[in-house]
Amino acid sequence: MFDFIKYKYVSITFSTILIAVGFGVTFGKYGGFATSLDFDGGLRAVVEFPENVERKNLEEYFSSKNLEAVLVLMDKDKNDYQIDIGLGSVDQIKQLYVERKGKDSLEAKQASAIDALIGLLQEDFKLEKKKILSANQVGSVVGAELTSTGISLLSLTLFFIMIYLSFRFQFKFALGAILALIHDLVITIAFIGFFQIKPSVPIIAALLTLLGYSINDTIVVFDRIRENAGNLRDAFSQIINISINQTLSRTFNTSVATLISVVAIIIGGAVELYDFAYVLTFGIILGTFSSVFIAAPLVDIYDGLSKRWKRS
Q: What is the pLDDT of residues 225-257, one digit of tens each?
């Protein structure tokens, strides 16, 4: 039987180092998180391209113009693509359009960024006007609203989980679970920054999903601790250790089975789902780790501190 409680401070230190490295690289090397249209604003157009135009052709086209574009296949039969371009490329698009039309062209100088993008696409891909299904510029106000909504959703999720666990178990278990969930959330955000994954609505969905997955594993361990506490006369730390070992095989099997379905998205899924799958894969592994090495040990630490406080 492995003694998980013996290494509780080692695991907490390891997690702290991961967080420091993740955010250190995010802000030290990249200067912050990657920008995305959903959160920072930019240009978005949905275009029906000719049948002979493939994703590879579009990627090469935007790359040749030094434009970072996110392509989403909306309709495979009609070859409709959603094109997202961040605000950082707006000036470049306007410049390209002016160069195309001529520096003396008043029309080019007065054209908005979205008009310039559509103009370039129409000329380069010989598109009729009706092939431009939609085109608009998303402002940073929308991004700020999405950011606020995402934070609110995550905060409410943590709040209701804590209320439920306080009612279902004891406060020390609720506290341990919430701290473990915050731990999962912070490290995953550091992971997103480290690998410069663009924040988006699907990424928020992945974060909420991993919170639900992590708390599921944690509750299984806590339920066994509560059961053993009523049947065994060992010290509380030893009961926690016994409970973790008893539920370890179930936790491992559940994680592997879940990972198979998520990895399947990476192997055979759409490119648009890759970031979602990467975050979810990391979150599942992290959630399993925190249920065993973070949540239960934190309960043990809190229990020890509370007993010392009562004695004094």
A: 988 888 877 788 899 999 999 999 988 898 899
pLDDT tens across 199-208, in order? 887 888 888 8
Mean local confidence (pLDDT), 94-108: 83
Closest to 85 (Cα-Cα) out of 98, 101, 66, 100: 66
Q: E strand or H helix at 135, and its extent? A: strand 132-138
Query: Comparing C-alpha atoms, which of 41, 45, 275 is closest to residue 145?
Result: 41
Cα dist from 260 to 107, 188, 197, 292, whole Å: 54, 20, 22, 21
Residues present in the chain in total: 312
- Please state the CATH superfamily assignment of the domain spanning residues 5-35+142-311 in this structure: Multidrug efflux transporter AcrB transmembrane domain (1.20.1640.10)
* CA 281 – CA 76 distance, rounded (Å): 27
Tokens representing 80 are 């409709």
Domain residue ranges of the chain, discontinuous segments joined by +: 5-35+142-311, 42-138
- pLDDT, tens digit, 9 for 90 and up, residues 148-170: 777 888 888 888 888 888 887 78
Domain 42-138 has CATH 3.40.50: no
Name the DSSP letter for residue 34. P
What does DSSP assign to residue 280?
Answer: H
Examine the pLDDT at 143 and tell me if it is beyond 70.
no
Handedness of CA 204, 39, 131, 274 (dihedral sign): negative
